Amino acid sequence: NAGVTQTPKFQVLKTGQSMTLQCAQDMNHEYMSWYRQDPGMGLRLIHYSVGAGITDQGEVPNGYNVSRSTTEDFPLRLLSAAPSQTSVYFCASSYGVVAGGRSTDTQYFGPGTRLTVL
Amino acid sequence: KQEVTQIPAALSVPEGENLVLNCSFTDSAIYNLQWFRQDPGKGLTSLLLIQSSQREQTSGRLNASLDKSSGRSTLYIAASQPGDSATYLCAVTRSNDYKLSFGAGTTVTVRA
């Protein structure tokens, strides 16, 4: 198993540009999520999905869109990049989905995408 | 809102010393607590997961305890090695919405 993969590893954007961060997992996990990590602030949840066709917002969703057309893929789209979106982005997945559509199992993280917005 | 705090932010110890990392959280209504390791420029690797009904979990040289009533967890790493140098993060899963709240992490350096 490749686990959770993310592309690209590094990206530099200009303000106003759009792009998509790719995330894929080959473990047949139902729950997938996106986090951003900023110095001294820990990880913050952007969006998450409890299965194909179902997504929901996390703590910091503004400026980001997601979709989940397959179990394997969960791309994150930046609509109009801003310097405040400079961060390291992590995708995570886990197996369990309990009643209410939430996951509580161990989460597996991708290697991250380091994004700089100028 | 759940606040997760890890103190100290950084720690440096000589090889062989036992490590004690602390995590505190403000809302005791948690489903579980996880400890992760993060190496520079890498993703997070799960080390231990403690369910809210458990008091501790052990894996090799690692032992994590949980005191839900006081809002604290401690990660013990016995006989530290230079390879243990990394950032350690704790995260709690909230009972009301099952989302994870992360601490900012403790960066550990083990000197050879």
Describe this protein with a few key phrases.
heterodimer, A: 118 residues, mainly beta, 7-stranded mixed sheet, B: 112 residues, 58% strand, globular
- Rounded mean pLDDT of chain A is 90
Count all strands of chain A and give the number. Answer: 11
Query: What does the radius of gyration of chain B come to?
Result: 13 Å
Counting H and I runs of at least 4 residues, what is the number of helices of chain A?
Answer: 0
Could you give a short account of the major beta sheet of chain A?
7 strands, mixed
Distance between the termini of chain B: 41 Å
Q: Round the Cα radius of gyration of chain A to an integer and report it.
A: 13 Å
Order of helices and strands of chain B: EEEEEEEEEEE
Largest beta-sheet characterization of chain B: 6 strands, mixed
Question: How do the SSEs of chain A run, as a string of H and E?
Answer: EEEEEEEEEEE
Task: Determine the structural class of chain B based on helices, strands and strand pairing.
Answer: mainly beta
